Amino acid sequence: MPHTFSQHTKNKTHYRNPSISIVHLVICCLSLFTFPLPSASSLQVSVSPFTSIFTTRTVRTRLAFQNKSTPSSTSTSTTVIKSSIMDSIDKNLLSQLTNSANSYAAAKGLQVETKQTSSSNSSSSYQCAPISLLPNAFPAKSFHNAKSLAPHFNTLVDRISRDGDFLKDTLAGGEYSVISKDEYTKKLLELYESIYMNDGYEGDKSNFAKIADRLGIQRSDYMLNQNQNNSEDYELKQVELNTIAASFAGLAVNVAGLHRMLTQRYSKELKTLLDTNAMVVMGESYEPDTNTNIGVPTNPALDRIPLAMNVAHERYSSRFDNDSNSIDKAILFVVQEGETNTVDQRMLEFQLWTNHQIPVVRMSFTAAKDGLIMDDTTGALYTKNENGKVQYEVTVVYFRAGYAPTDYPDGYNGMEWQARELMERSRATKCPSLGYHLAGTKKVQQELARPGVLERFFTEEERKMPSDGGGGEDRMTQMRGAFAGLYSLGEDAMEEDLAAIKEAIADAEGSGRYVLKPQREGGGYNYYGDDLAKKIKDNISTSTSDNENENENGALVLGEDLAEFILMQRLFPPKQEAVLLRAGLVEGTGESISELGCFGTILQSYDASEEPIHNEYAGFLLRTKFSNVDEGGVASGFATLSSPYLC
């Protein structure tokens, strides 16, 4: 999921049925003689005669290792090689850097799985993950601000998850609400209500969810956005808050290691490029601050996220050790069928064993229907082996699937939803619980931006606490300062929402300042530019009523089909020079934009009155894409993994 990077660029060009022109073939063939080509063995990919290490024109924006939950359409964009890049990185250096990146990827596991299937068998191989060859400049002040916000957003998600009335009012309020148009969110909310908001449980099913702890592994995604009052100043703005299947923590650690190695080993050769990108972000007068740690920071994600899982595992064991059974305990990873981002997941699994000696069981929702059983007297959840015998007691259910309707192919009453319900009803700690999952929806994000709503979830004393971001403001000001403009398209739309909608459909300039987002994760679902304007115009009308109790004459009337969307301010981050790789090959060079994700982990008792057992910042992820590509997401094929180069 949760690997979306869907903001916010201009001048997108999509070719629905791309074809290779003679010019493209000539360029590709010439490039074979211009740039040294790494061997297929070092790249772990097969190279066709027309594949260039340096694709000068056609930039692919989707990967071959798409998950099934992403849209199936393919789009391409064009990018132009920037002379400034070639001035500072010559052909030999580019070849050296690329070979080093591929070798590092193979040595450190910076890879993704590719699957080959035929009528008789199937096999897998591994190739370099989609990466930016070099890190991207990022202001140290903004990076530390994002880090300091992580525990506060962790707390916010937990408190929202326990406020059933707020979730119902936000997602189900009114005749035309989110759930009136989004069956997937409706199903999540129905399960949440029946399990957490009713005294008993429908159908006389055992329900132990209310005594289960809650584990959150979340990622808050941010972009730098140009300050309207100062063209050289950029503010940190939140794009979204991912509360389920927040991925790439493992690979991000290794990308940071790669970038740290390259920028240190080739410091003289890369100085011009790194300094140029730093000035794009910091202003032309930028001079390095001797008090700032310049360079790629250490990424603790592969230590801190398994640590949080271990805390949850140990807490479960201590709470329920009185049960007289000798069954070994394990953490359950719920994964997608045909998953290709396995290396990232396995890194967490192996760290859990290496550091904490906790075994992991991997299972899809489909397999879980028959692979799990719950003790109706205790709420204990068990895995079963191939012989149907109990294998492990599950302490933590960690969802790396379940964030999209395609993860439930048997339908809304089918086996996958039954498995999700069984897990949720158990006493195992869920990551995330249904409440945490719903707290991450776009509609909740939009509602929090309204005056007074964020403050509802913090005490007066907490609201007045100084922030940790170093800006001297209080906590609420710091959190609100990270919010982008967010607007409702439902029955609850207010005057400011309607004003934004009118601006978005007024002209091309107006539509370019917004993004239309549904309640969906995974990348490829948003509307931009002309598509955005058309989608809204097709679903609005103008009131002609003279009844003073109805809309004023000429007022905007929103159609019911818009209720599942929100309108978001489009962000305009700085454009930096970058070299992007896919499958170990240089995809192209040109202007790029980046999005920073900060991981946060929280373990909270089932008893809301208790202080968090664990709550901290847990690492980072940077994703980079060419600036002429609207959509985002690494697994969906739009973006690449990168690292911040603090300046």
Average pLDDT number = 84
Summarize the main sheet. Answer: 7 strands, antiparallel
Beta-strand content bin: 15-25%
* Poorly predicted segments: 8-83
Instruction: Report the end-to-end length measured between terminal Cα atoms.
Output: 30 Å
Oligomer: single chain
Fraction of residues in helix? 25-40%
Question: How would you sum up the global shape?
Answer: globular
Q: What is the CA-atom radius of gyration, in angstroms?
A: 25 Å
Walk me through the structure.
- The strands form seven sheets. Strands 5, 7, 8, 20, 21, 22 and 23 form a seven-stranded antiparallel β-sheet that branches.
- Helix 19 (495-506) packs across helix 21 (529-537).
- A hairpin with a 4-residue loop joins strand 3 (111-117) and strand 4.
- The model is unreliable at 8-83 (pLDDT under 50).
- The chain is built from 21 helices and 24 strands.
- The chain is an alpha+beta fold and 647 residues long.
Can you summarize this structure?
A hairpin with a 2-residue loop joins strand 20 (576-582) and strand 21 (585-604). With 647 residues, this protein is of the alpha+beta class.
